[in-house]
């Protein structure tokens, strides 16, 4: 029987740690605060942002929401980011992606103060991750690492295959697995017979955005599978959320697997809260030391 990796329970453990750390910061008169910037009216983005704000409240993190219309210019978004960078009461800044097509995402992400970049998408943090420096790390891959450590303990020597090479999931995921002493392969849309490479893996991370692409033929018996995919599909006349992995088939062969929903998604939000507290501690550490 395959183990079901419970992302909600793991997220609750991270959030309990975060809450305790927030209380320590409150006792030092630091109120960790996260600003979320949302441009346009994509319904899925609104749901994510609402969940983030709710979770923040539960652990005592102050959250601020900045909503701009879909027609907002890049300069208007950059103005909001500049104001948040300059505000010492704001410790974390998240600009919800995707941005409307007319706005250059890279330009906006690069404008965020790297110390407040709780998504870990700024090039300074990306570079730091690849060099093994202690920087803010992208939330989804960081959440996957927690789930893997909880399930397998030490990952040294494991062969991990990451399916997908996006800047927000696939690439930072590969960097974190390498840092944890895995051997890594990254497969993508130009890979020849990706399923053959995938079948060699002890660990599979699916971050493709294709509903149920990965079936049992891609998986070595006894592998651990982490499904990052979040795909809303219509099936049997209703709307449902499915991953990039064909869960029913793949769980027959795995040692452990994450479900969708209830797997990586809740961990992403928990790691965002974790990063906000880290950022608050780093920004105020100096002030706390001086007050002593
Ligand atoms: N749970 C969570 O917290 C989060 C979930 N997600 C979900 O994760 C999934 C991936 O997101 P994201 O990384 O942003 O997606 P992107 O669309 O940015 O990247 C998808 C990647 O998959 C590759 N790919 C596409 N088709 C195939 C194929 N047939 N075989 C192999 N590789 C393929 C693409 O290759 P190429 O580069 O060649 O185009 C690309 O590298 C989505 O379902 C998204 O909703 C995303 C963020 C957070
Ligand atoms: N700057 C930025 N940072 C992000 O981290 C970011 C982003 N933009 N844009 C969109 C993606 C997607 N993402 C998710 C977070 C939580 C769930 C989540 O909690 N999912 C629940 C289900 C939620 C539901 O029912 O819809 C679950 O999987 O159990 C999903 C997806 C963060 N992203």
UniProtKB/TrEMBL annotation:
SUPFAM superfamilies: Aminoacid dehydrogenase-like, N-terminal domain (SSF53223), NAD(P)-binding Rossmann-fold domains (SSF51735). InterPro entries: Aminoacid_DH-like_N_sf (IPR046346), NAD(P)-bd_dom_sf (IPR036291), THF_DH/CycHdrlase (IPR000672), THF_DH/CycHdrlase_cat_dom (IPR020630), THF_DH/CycHdrlase_CS (IPR020867), THF_DH/CycHdrlase_NAD-bd_dom (IPR020631). GO terms for molecular function: methenyltetrahydrofolate cyclohydrolase activity; methylenetetrahydrofolate dehydrogenase (NADP+) activity. The keyword Amino-acid biosynthesis applies. It holds the Pfam family THF_DHG_CYH_C. Its EC number is 1.5.1.5, 3.5.4.9. GO terms for biological process: L-histidine biosynthetic process; methionine biosynthetic process; purine nucleotide biosynthetic process; tetrahydrofolate interconversion. One of its GO terms (cellular component) is cytosol. Residues 5-119 form the Tetrahydrofolate dehydrogenase/cyclohydrolase catalytic domain. It catalyses: (6R)-5,10-methenyltetrahydrofolate + H2O = (6R)-10-formyltetrahydrofolate + H(+); (6R)-5,10-methylene-5,6,7,8-tetrahydrofolate + NADP(+) = (6R)-5,10-methenyltetrahydrofolate + NADPH. The keyword Transcription regulation does not apply. NADP(+) binds at residues 164-166, 230. Homodimer. Belongs to the tetrahydrofolate dehydrogenase/cyclohydrolase family. Catalyzes the oxidation of 5,10-methylenetetrahydrofolate to 5,10-methenyltetrahydrofolate and then the hydrolysis of 5,10-methenyltetrahydrofolate to 10-formyltetrahydrofolate. This is Bifunctional protein FolD. It comes from Phytopseudomonas punonensis. The gene is folD.
């Amino acid at each position: 029987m395959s183990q079901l990796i419970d992302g909600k329970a793991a997220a609750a453990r991270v959030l309990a740690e975060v809450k305790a750390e927030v209380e320590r910061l409150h006792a030092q008169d630091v109120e960790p605060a996260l600003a979320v910037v949302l441009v346009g009216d994509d319904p899925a983005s609104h749901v994510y942002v609402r969940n983030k704000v709710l979770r923040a409240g539960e652990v005592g993190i102050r959250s601020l929401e900045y909503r701009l219309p879909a027609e907002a210019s890049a300069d208007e978004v950059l103005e909001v980011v500049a104001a948040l960078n300059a505000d010492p009461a704001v410790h974390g800044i998240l600009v919800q992606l995707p941005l409307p097509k007319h706005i250059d995402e890279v330009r906006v992400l690069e404008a965020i103060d790297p110390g407040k970049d709780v998504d870990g998408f700024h090039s300074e943090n990306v570079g730091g991750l690849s060099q093994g420096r202690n920087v803010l790390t992208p939330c989804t891959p960081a959440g996957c690492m927690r789930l893997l450590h909880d399930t397998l303990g030490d990952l040294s020597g494991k062969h991990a295959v990451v399916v997908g090479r996006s800047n927000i999931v696939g690439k930072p995921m590969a960097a974190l697995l390498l840092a944890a002493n895995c051997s890594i392969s990254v497969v993508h849309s130009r890979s020849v017979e990706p399923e053959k490479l995938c079948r060699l893996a002890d660990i599979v991370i699916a971050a493709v955005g294709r509903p149920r692409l990965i079936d049992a033929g891609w998986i070595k018996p006894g592998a651990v599978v982490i499904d990052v995919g979040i795909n809303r599909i219509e099936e049997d006349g209703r709307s449902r959320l499915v991953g990039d992995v064909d869960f029913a088939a793949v769980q027959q062969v795995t040692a452990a697997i994450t479900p969708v929903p209830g797997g990586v998604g809740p961990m992403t939000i928990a790691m965002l809260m974790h990063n906000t507290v880290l950022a608050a501690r780093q920004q105020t550490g100096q002030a706390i030391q001086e007050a002593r």
